[in-house]
Amino acid sequence: MPRAGLTPDRVTAAAAELADEVGFDHVSLSALARHFGVKDASLYSHVKNLQDLRTRLALLAGGEMIDRIALAVAGRSGKEALVAFAGAYREYALAHPGRYAATQIRIDQSLVADSPALRRTAEITYGMLRAYGLDEPDLTDAVRLLRATFHGYCALESTGGFGAPRDVRASWDRAIDALHIALEHWPGESKKRG
Protein backbone atom coordinates (compact mmCIF):
# COMPACT_ATOMS: atom_id res chain seq x y z
CA MET A 1 0.00 0.00 0.00
CA PRO A 2 1.44 3.43 -0.94
CA ARG A 3 2.52 5.57 2.00
CA ALA A 4 0.17 8.51 2.60
CA GLY A 5 1.44 11.72 1.11
CA LEU A 6 3.92 10.14 -1.28
CA THR A 7 3.21 10.33 -4.99
CA PRO A 8 5.41 9.82 -8.04
CA ASP A 9 5.48 13.60 -8.55
CA ARG A 10 6.43 14.30 -4.94
CA VAL A 11 9.18 11.67 -5.05
CA THR A 12 10.51 13.13 -8.32
CA ALA A 13 10.45 16.68 -6.95
CA ALA A 14 12.40 15.54 -3.89
CA ALA A 15 14.88 13.79 -6.17
CA ALA A 16 15.34 17.05 -8.09
CA GLU A 17 16.10 18.94 -4.88
CA LEU A 18 18.49 16.22 -3.78
CA ALA A 19 20.23 16.24 -7.17
CA ASP A 20 20.93 19.96 -6.84
CA GLU A 21 22.26 19.46 -3.31
CA VAL A 22 24.46 16.38 -3.72
CA GLY A 23 24.76 15.86 -7.49
CA PHE A 24 22.72 13.79 -9.91
CA ASP A 25 25.03 10.77 -9.63
CA HIS A 26 24.43 10.64 -5.86
CA VAL A 27 20.64 10.49 -6.05
CA SER A 28 19.53 7.09 -4.83
CA LEU A 29 16.35 5.48 -3.64
CA SER A 30 17.96 5.00 -0.23
CA ALA A 31 18.73 8.71 0.08
CA LEU A 32 15.17 9.58 -0.88
CA ALA A 33 13.76 7.06 1.57
CA ARG A 34 15.82 8.70 4.32
CA HIS A 35 14.51 12.12 3.21
CA PHE A 36 10.91 10.94 3.57
CA GLY A 37 11.57 8.86 6.68
CA VAL A 38 10.42 5.63 5.05
CA LYS A 39 11.99 2.32 4.10
CA ASP A 40 13.44 1.98 0.58
CA ALA A 41 10.71 -0.50 -0.34
CA SER A 42 8.04 2.17 0.26
CA LEU A 43 9.27 4.10 -2.77
CA TYR A 44 8.67 1.19 -5.14
CA SER A 45 4.96 1.96 -5.02
CA HIS A 46 5.78 5.27 -6.72
CA VAL A 47 8.77 4.56 -8.97
CA LYS A 48 9.81 1.27 -10.56
CA ASN A 49 13.52 1.55 -9.87
CA LEU A 50 16.42 3.99 -9.93
CA GLN A 51 16.37 4.22 -13.73
CA ASP A 52 12.67 5.13 -13.68
CA LEU A 53 13.38 7.80 -11.05
CA ARG A 54 16.25 9.23 -13.12
CA THR A 55 14.09 9.31 -16.24
CA ARG A 56 11.31 11.10 -14.33
CA LEU A 57 13.86 13.56 -12.99
CA ALA A 58 15.24 14.17 -16.50
CA LEU A 59 11.75 14.86 -17.85
CA LEU A 60 10.94 17.19 -14.94
CA ALA A 61 14.19 19.13 -15.35
CA GLY A 62 13.84 19.26 -19.12
CA GLY A 63 10.35 20.71 -18.70
CA GLU A 64 11.55 23.33 -16.23
CA MET A 65 14.43 24.29 -18.47
CA ILE A 66 12.38 24.64 -21.64
CA ASP A 67 9.76 26.69 -19.78
CA ARG A 68 12.48 29.20 -18.88
CA ILE A 69 13.88 29.17 -22.40
CA ALA A 70 10.42 29.65 -23.93
CA LEU A 71 9.79 32.70 -21.75
CA ALA A 72 13.17 34.13 -22.70
CA VAL A 73 12.77 33.70 -26.47
CA ALA A 74 9.09 34.70 -26.73
CA GLY A 75 8.68 37.40 -29.38
CA ARG A 76 12.32 37.29 -30.42
CA SER A 77 14.06 35.98 -33.52
CA GLY A 78 17.52 35.71 -35.02
CA LYS A 79 20.41 36.78 -32.82
CA GLU A 80 18.12 38.21 -30.15
CA ALA A 81 16.42 34.82 -29.76
CA LEU A 82 19.74 32.98 -29.77
CA VAL A 83 21.12 35.23 -27.01
CA ALA A 84 17.95 34.78 -24.93
CA PHE A 85 17.90 31.00 -25.49
CA ALA A 86 21.57 30.65 -24.59
CA GLY A 87 21.23 32.87 -21.52
CA ALA A 88 18.26 30.94 -20.14
CA TYR A 89 20.06 27.65 -20.81
CA ARG A 90 23.19 28.78 -18.97
CA GLU A 91 21.27 30.26 -16.04
CA TYR A 92 19.34 27.03 -15.52
CA ALA A 93 22.44 24.85 -15.82
CA LEU A 94 24.36 26.90 -13.27
CA ALA A 95 21.45 27.40 -10.84
CA HIS A 96 20.38 23.74 -10.89
CA PRO A 97 23.47 21.61 -11.49
CA GLY A 98 21.91 18.29 -10.45
CA ARG A 99 18.74 18.80 -12.44
CA TYR A 100 20.77 20.01 -15.39
CA ALA A 101 22.91 16.86 -15.24
CA ALA A 102 19.69 14.85 -15.42
CA THR A 103 18.80 16.54 -18.72
CA GLN A 104 21.93 15.06 -20.27
CA ILE A 105 21.02 11.39 -19.81
CA ARG A 106 19.83 9.31 -22.70
CA ILE A 107 16.07 8.69 -22.50
CA ASP A 108 14.31 5.73 -24.04
CA GLN A 109 12.97 6.91 -27.41
CA SER A 110 9.53 5.48 -26.70
CA LEU A 111 9.23 7.95 -23.80
CA VAL A 112 10.47 10.89 -25.86
CA ALA A 113 7.46 10.79 -28.17
CA ASP A 114 5.11 10.85 -25.17
CA SER A 115 6.82 13.77 -23.42
CA PRO A 116 5.22 17.18 -23.99
CA ALA A 117 8.34 18.85 -22.54
CA LEU A 118 10.67 17.13 -25.00
CA ARG A 119 8.37 17.87 -27.94
CA ARG A 120 8.23 21.51 -26.82
CA THR A 121 12.02 21.61 -26.56
CA ALA A 122 12.32 20.46 -30.16
CA GLU A 123 9.66 22.93 -31.37
CA ILE A 124 11.27 25.93 -29.67
CA THR A 125 14.82 25.02 -30.63
CA TYR A 126 14.03 24.21 -34.24
CA GLY A 127 11.75 27.25 -34.48
CA MET A 128 14.57 29.53 -33.37
CA LEU A 129 16.95 27.97 -35.88
CA ARG A 130 14.51 28.20 -38.80
CA ALA A 131 14.88 31.99 -38.56
CA TYR A 132 18.41 31.37 -39.86
CA GLY A 133 16.99 29.73 -42.98
CA LEU A 134 17.98 26.21 -42.02
CA ASP A 135 16.16 23.05 -43.03
CA GLU A 136 17.01 19.40 -42.44
CA PRO A 137 19.59 17.95 -42.20
CA ASP A 138 21.20 21.26 -41.26
CA LEU A 139 18.73 21.86 -38.43
CA THR A 140 19.88 18.71 -36.68
CA ASP A 141 23.52 19.63 -37.22
CA ALA A 142 22.93 23.14 -35.84
CA VAL A 143 21.08 21.77 -32.78
CA ARG A 144 24.03 19.51 -32.08
CA LEU A 145 26.47 22.41 -32.39
CA LEU A 146 24.44 24.57 -30.00
CA ARG A 147 23.97 21.78 -27.48
CA ALA A 148 27.64 20.83 -27.55
CA THR A 149 28.72 24.45 -27.15
CA PHE A 150 26.25 25.30 -24.39
CA HIS A 151 26.82 22.07 -22.50
CA GLY A 152 30.58 22.17 -22.79
CA TYR A 153 30.74 25.77 -21.65
CA CYS A 154 28.39 25.22 -18.70
CA ALA A 155 30.18 22.04 -17.65
CA LEU A 156 33.54 23.79 -17.65
CA GLU A 157 32.20 26.90 -15.94
CA SER A 158 30.44 24.95 -13.19
CA THR A 159 33.63 23.13 -12.25
CA GLY A 160 35.86 26.22 -12.40
CA GLY A 161 37.48 24.93 -15.58
CA PHE A 162 38.19 28.37 -17.01
CA GLY A 163 41.40 29.51 -15.35
CA ALA A 164 42.32 32.56 -17.44
CA PRO A 165 41.70 35.96 -15.86
CA ARG A 166 39.25 37.02 -18.62
CA ASP A 167 35.67 37.41 -17.40
CA VAL A 168 33.76 34.17 -18.06
CA ARG A 169 30.59 36.08 -19.05
CA ALA A 170 32.53 38.10 -21.64
CA SER A 171 33.82 34.87 -23.18
CA TRP A 172 30.27 33.45 -23.17
CA ASP A 173 29.00 36.53 -25.01
CA ARG A 174 31.74 36.14 -27.65
CA ALA A 175 30.88 32.47 -28.05
CA ILE A 176 27.22 33.34 -28.70
CA ASP A 177 28.31 36.03 -31.21
CA ALA A 178 30.42 33.38 -32.97
CA LEU A 179 27.49 30.95 -33.03
CA HIS A 180 25.26 33.63 -34.54
CA ILE A 181 27.79 34.26 -37.31
CA ALA A 182 28.14 30.53 -37.92
CA LEU A 183 24.36 30.13 -38.17
CA GLU A 184 24.04 33.09 -40.54
CA HIS A 185 26.70 31.63 -42.80
CA TRP A 186 25.84 27.98 -42.39
CA PRO A 187 27.75 25.85 -44.91
CA GLY A 188 25.22 23.07 -44.90
CA GLU A 189 23.20 21.12 -47.36
CA SER A 190 19.85 22.95 -47.15
CA LYS A 191 21.38 26.32 -48.11
CA LYS A 192 23.16 24.72 -51.10
CA ARG A 193 19.83 23.41 -52.37
CA GLY A 194 18.03 26.73 -51.77
* Helical amount: over 70%
- Shape type: globular
Radius of gyration: 19 Å
Mean pLDDT: 90
* Largest beta-sheet details: none
Weakly predicted, low-confidence segments: none
- Element string (H = helix, E = strand): HHHHHHHHHHH
Task: Please report which band the strand proportion falls in: under 5%, 5-15%, 15-25%, 25-35%, 35-45% or over 45%.
Answer: under 5%
Number of strands: 0
The class by helix and strand makeup works out as: mainly alpha
Distance between the termini: 61 Å
Q: Count the helices. How many?
A: 11
Describe the protein's architecture and organization.
- The chain is 71% helix and 0% strand.
- Helix 5 (78-95) crosses helix 9.
- The longest helix is centred in the first third of the chain and has 24 residues, at 50-73.
- The model has no long low-confidence stretch (mean pLDDT 90).
- It is mainly alpha-helical and 194 residues long.
- The N and C termini lie far apart (61 Å).
Please write out the topology:
Layout: H1 8-22, H2 29-36, H3 40-43, H4 50-73, H5 78-95, H6 97-102, H7 109-112, H8 116-130, H9 138-158, H10 168-184, H11 189-193
Helix pairs in contact: 1-4, 4-5, 4-8, 5-9, 5-10, 8-9, 9-10
